[in-house]
Amino acid sequence: NKKIEKRITAKYHKIKDWVMDPTGYFLIAIDKENKLLRVGYCKFSKLGNNPKNDMVAEIVGTTAIEIVNTLIKEKYISSLQHAADMGIELCKAELALKNNLNYVQDKDLNIFIK
To answer: What is the DSSP string of the chain?
Structure first.
């Protein structure tokens, strides 16, 4: 289409392009027994050579969309990049939970088709 003004090839380097959200970070796990997604919200209480991290909230739910929207509503996320990353990670966790797969945060979801 000649009306398209710009064509961009998407790229992302997970080390160079990643920026820490100053409001904190999350630990994501699946609870297969209770069929829940569990998200720990952590804040840095001390930086430097001996950093201290505190988990200040746990958010639980059954779907990625309800959790990511709760994180945004609670103002636990302050950047668009972090919101997008959480959406991706929570979607992987939800798929793992629903399909009885193993989930490891920030790792590829292994789906084996037999």
So the answer is: -TT----------TTTS----TT-EEEEEEETTTTEEEEEEEEEEE-SSS-EEEEEEEEEESSHHHHHHHHHHTT----HHHHHHHHHHHHHHHHHHHTT----TTS-------
Amino acid present at 50: N
pTM for the model stands at: 0.85
Q: How far apart are CA 10 and CA 106, in angstroms?
A: 20
The string of pLDDT tens digits covering residues 65-81 is: 999 999 999 999 999 99
